[in-house]
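Why predict the complex rather than its parts? Because the way molecules touch one another can change local conformation, and only a joint prediction can capture that. The input here totals 414 residues.
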Amino acid sequence: MNNRNIPKIVIDRLPWYLQTLNQMAREGLSIVSSLVLAERLDITPAQIRKDLSYFGEFGKQGSGYPVFHLMDELQTILNINHIWQVAIVGVGGLGHALLNYHGFARHGFETVLAFDNHPNVIGKQVAHLVVQDITHLEDQLRKKAIKIGILTVPARQAQIMAERLVSGGVLAILNYAPITLHLPPDIQVQSMDPVQSLQRMTYFLPR
Amino acid sequence: MNNRNIPKIVIDRLPWYLQTLNQMAREGLSIVSSLVLAERLDITPAQIRKDLSYFGEFGKQGSGYPVFHLMDELQTILNINHIWQVAIVGVGGLGHALLNYHGFARHGFETVLAFDNHPNVIGKQVAHLVVQDITHLEDQLRKKAIKIGILTVPARQAQIMAERLVSGGVLAILNYAPITLHLPPDIQVQSMDPVQSLQRMTYFLPR
DNA sequence: TAGATTGTTAATCGATTAACAATC
DNA sequence: TAGATTGTTAATCGATTAACAATC
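Output of the joint prediction:
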């Protein structure tokens, strides 16, 4: 076990390890060596062993890592060994799609609140939720002690809505708006901008 | 100018610089120093200057970088100074949302083909496109010489559909399915898995 | 010119990898 | 036991940053 500060990039890889272990478990694998896992992820076995060693000793010399046990450990490390309730702000096309997406619940993220500012949507049922008026945002977030928000509003509203999420007590924001949010440093943000992702690939395409 | 191989991580930052320059241009800024840009991005000015120096000399000592010129240069570097045609595979909720998203066209990515395998959707008009039967995928991709695909199918179909995109000549895939695709090394892949992004944040939340 | 900022070098910092003793 | 694989150290590799001469 290594007690130094854990590099952010190591944390970023853990969900990816977990996803692959999930797949392997479904394929019936019960033990996996760092070598086999590394081949699947196309990285070096040393990196996997080093990454895991920041958190403990999860393997057995001679055989490898018990798949289910390692998954459990990763879930504990990532703080996803319980249900997180999530609020969605912005119920346009993308908000609709995310509310209907079962992957969140399947992985322990339960969407429990949905907000919009448009009269046509407020009060409507979308998937399992009734869309609420954005004016109630902070109140409702506080009342349910929501710590995670998903932001699916147009770019021009995103910064203000992000700030409102934060003042409602939210500590982590999954941002689908194509802007860079400016928030206090203790607020976690992950941005999902498909245009930026496309632009990261075109560089490598033949001109 | 620096002629060594350019680190991938530098390429990854360029779309982000471009997005911020866009914002600044809209705010009326015509010249920006590495210091001002760095404050906006919350990185060091040295990193910006070093990153840009891989590609040329775009600034003026004493003043900084002309915003529009730098944007032009970045667009050329990223290979986005022309329209890219894009195909979408999978017209479920997310596919619908993306077809209706104007951000792609606004940034030079034109969705020109949409495919699904479900009779209820095939032949239907969604946004500006008529959804085609997936059986025609490779033919249509070849016919239109499409190089970029967006994958919005369920996880269990994603690997096969990715392979079909590749055999249709696609070289870059924006993958929304929550699996790791295994494709030839010359194929560009960017994955957008909201669950993984959430899991990268929960680590930092109070338990 | 004086002040400001670039482009670039060299130093620093941090992450990845190879190698191997420990051990299942 | 013999073979295999971990956890960890140390070496390597690569990226970031500070500093400054060049120059607008």
